[in-house]
Recover the amino acids of this structure.
DNA sequence: AAGAACATCAACCGCAGAGTC
DNA sequence: CGACTCTGCGGTTGATGTTCT
């Protein structure tokens, strides 16, 4: 059934109409906008065109080595959360990252996995140790919380743990390593370093349990890239 | 030179979550 | 509280360009 809406590739004239409309009136309602902008497109199509192609700060062209490494790293942490990955690559879109992944990087990880499987298989043949028997160390504090999403029970555990640490830090029943272990289990990102325990306890608590916009990877990025031994500004 | 095979990427589709009435 | 709308996300498709035979 025809809706009268145009589909397929965008013409230069359509691009111009959309750009000039948004420049003048901003983005207010994607579903209504095409009508006022004089476009026979769906709002969805307009939004996509703007977000993936016309937005002024978009970076086009080849992905750099650094960007490629970031994608690989973030994908290993986040999986197919393309928008979350793209959010950490200035000027790149989720669609662009997704396309790049499927075109360039997927095969890299497939090859790595293949090699890893072959290695495991070889090891299994050579010794009695089985890959299945390998277990991650479990933190006695968290009893093995492994999700980066924090549950109420983990919040309770954290509060209890924090009180214990605060009350007894002078006596040392709960150690710095225990705390590190706790966060490592909760938010298992590489290079997450704790250098000043007193500063970080409540900052992390706020990030994880009280800030609904908590984003573990942003925290990860902030605490590694920006961290120079001093406390970061509050979010 | 021509056509087949493959690679790339813009665009579409369906779904889910958030917001509003 | 349910229905509806809007927005954004991830998977997929299809057009186009490039390389190979």
């Amino acid at each position: 059934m025809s809706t009268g809406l145009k589909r397929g590739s965008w013409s230069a004239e359509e691009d111009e109409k959309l750009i000039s409309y948004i420049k003048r009136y901003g983005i207010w309602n994607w579903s209504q906008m095409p009508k006022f902008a004089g476009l026979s497109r769906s709002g969805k199509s307009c939004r996509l065109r703007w977000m993936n192609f016309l937005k002024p700060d978009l970076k086009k062209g080849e992905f750099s080595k650094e960007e490629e490494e970031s994608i690989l790293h973030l994908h290993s942490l986040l999986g197919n959360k393309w928008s979350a990955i793209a959010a950490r690559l200035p000027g790149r879109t989720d669609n662009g990252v997704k396309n790049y992944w499927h075109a360039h990087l997927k095969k890299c990880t497939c090859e790595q996995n293949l090699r890893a499987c072959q290695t495991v298989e070889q090891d299994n043949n050579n010794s009695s140790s089985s890959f299945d028997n390998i277990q991650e160390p479990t933190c006695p504090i968290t009893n093995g919380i492994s999700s980066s999403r924090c549950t109420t029970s983990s919040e309770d555990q954290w509060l209890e743990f924090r009180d214990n640490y605060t009350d007894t830090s002078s006596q040392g029943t709960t150690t710095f390593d225990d705390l590190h272990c706790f966060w490592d289990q909760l938010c298992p990102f590489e290079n997450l370093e704790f250098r000043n325990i007193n500063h970080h306890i409540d900052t992390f608590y706020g990030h994880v349990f009280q800030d609904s916009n908590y984003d573990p990877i942003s925290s990860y990025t902030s605490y590694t890239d920006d961290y120079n031994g001093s406390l970061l500004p509050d979010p």
